[in-house]
Amino acid sequence: MSEKKQAPKAVVAGGGFRGPRAMGPRQPVDKKALKRLLAYLKPFWPRLIIVLLCIVVNAFATASAATFLGAVIDDHIVPLLASGSQDFSGLVAAILRMAALFALAIVAVFTQGRIMAVVSQRVLRSVRDEMFAHMQTLPIRYFDTNTYGDVMSHYTNDTDTLRQMVSQVLPQSLSSLITLVVVFISMLGCSVWLTLLVILSTLFMIRVTAKIGGGSARYFISQQTSLANLNGFVEEMINGQKVVKVFNHEPQAKEDFDRKNDELCDNATEANKLGNILGPVNNNLGHLQYVLLAIVGGALAIAGTPNLSLSGMGTLTLGNIAAFLTLSRNFMQPISQMTQQINFIAMALAGASRIFSLMDEPSEQDNGYVRLVNAKTVNGELTESEERTGLWAWKHPHSADGSITYTRLQGDVVMEHVDFGYVPDKTVLHDISLYARPGQKVAFVGATGAGKTTITNLINRFYDIADGKIRYDGININKIHKPDLRRSLGVVLQDVNLFTGTVMDNIRYGKLDATDEECIAAAKLANAHDFITRLPDGYQTVLKGDGSGLSQGQRQLISIARAAVADPPVMILDEATSSIDTRTEALVQQGMDKLMQGRTVFVIAHRLSTVQNSDVIMVLDHGHIIERGSHDQLIAEKGQYYQLYTGAFELE
């Protein structure tokens, strides 16, 4: 089993149930995330203007309903009662005008909902596209230090909070704000004295809301983090379910899950406990304000106090009081709505902050300028070809004079005094020097953790070396464009990854423009053709769940065929046959020998039988090359390789 060094992962401390006071510091709200989120709305500004107009129409209708009540009382009902007239034409006309306004408001609300549904989904599409595109640029180190469940949570839970934010919270908050302005102006049109009383009570309500809402917002942010941790743990348990059952680890797994679930429950409980009381508190404060306004308004009317309004001084009438009481309700309702949106805003900003933290992760650095191109020989000189010729060359531009030189890709790999550590203070490779000439087969042997896989990771530039140089066909690999470097390397890993799709698609993954015939030829080379033809639909059999319907050996054979169809000049075989039985290994080895002909090959193996025919065998121990030579040479030296081969001691 090949080793894989990883940087330390974040560990959630255990220790049983953690109550609300023991959950650590609550995370602050990321206000910058809101600004970045709003930037995604810029392309939709024409539609948002229509939404704004719809909101204004709805707000105007809401305010008009209250002023309409006052006008009906003062201009129609009171005169009709006083005169005893039966002429209701004026009242009916006023009601019809109001009905038309409300019908327009209904159309506006419907239009607003339709537009925001389209805008929100397109914003989410843009966020997911940008997030996934950026994720493809991240270095391997990021995925080594973050659980897959946590990364997946960005695309599910965090993105869903953005949907609520864009489709519901933002338009409702904007609607509430515009309604507040329109209703406030309407209140001033009724009575300035009563409006001042509303302002004082509103300031008190805002103070209470800030006290309660601030605490709930922080807990909602912690809830998103706890949810991501729980998702990561569940993903690990699903992938490792066989291991859990083999070692009877179910009780411990349940205990670990309960601890993480308790943490999520604590954060969610505290968040919702504070959030759920916001609405009732604001509603009851609104009721108290309503009663206070009725008392004060009635007292002012009875006392005959002059009423100041936008239209000047006048008398506070019954219609004014009735209209103002309705307006006060309409004024408190958007405030209550806005305070209740605080929780959703906090969740959305927490999700946005996590999404933007992924987007802000530094991309894999690539300063390479040497490119891999199709080449052909013209008059004895290499030149670039637009067609695939089977001949590859490194295109090396020279900035000094603007000239371009071509170096034939041969597969000559040299490492000179290389030091490397996954973390700066811990070196895992020490002064590694080796060379692999074109067509040579170089094998790495050693215990787990000796540094075998690390060497191949450095050749691929999954990580960059701390000191020394690695040259590929005489070119420092730091100068080679990473995608071109990796295109020249074929890798067969111990851990096989198959993708949802047909067997043919999985083989073609190594070369997207490969024909069916080339894929079948590659499968035959890897001795995978026979078992593939026995599948229900042959090469068109659809694989799901990482090829869960296949044996480990069959999955490995497909991965070898995938590397074969790519036809790279350099092959890296990282325990490629470790999951295959001895009989199948003999068949695969024949195909591998054909595949390796004329190629530079790096082989990592614990089965020493697979490396005996290597040109050079290197024995590693704790990041040092302690022995090197052919099989016969190392046996003759009777060193550690000899002891391994004769069974004096075994690899761990």
Describe this structure in words.
The protein has 652 residues and is of the alpha+beta class. The chain has three domains: 31-359, Up-down Bundle (ABC transporter transmembrane region fold); 371-408, no CATH class; 413-646, 3-Layer(aba) Sandwich (Rossmann fold). The chain is 57% helix and 14% strand. The chain contains 18 helices and 18 strands. The chain has helices spanning 31-39, 45-83, 89-135, 140-144, 148-190, 192-239, 241-246, 250-303, 318-359, 452-459, 482-487, 503-508, 516-525, 529-533, 552-566, 582-596, 631-637, 640-646, and strands at 306-309, 312-315, 371-378, 381-384, 392-397, 404-408, 413-420, 429-436, 441-446, 467-472, 475-476, 489-492, 501-502, 542-543, 570-574, 600-604, 616-621, 624-629. It has a six-stranded mixed sheet with strand order 12-15-16-9-17-18, sandwiched between helices. A four-stranded antiparallel sheet has the order 4-3-5-6. A four-stranded antiparallel sheet has the order 8-7-10-11, with helices on one face. Helix 2 (45-83) packs parallel to helix 5. The longest helix is centred in the middle third of the chain and has 54 residues, at 250-303. It is elongated, with a radius of gyration of 36 Å. The N and C termini lie close together (9 Å). The model is unreliable at 1-28 (pLDDT under 50).
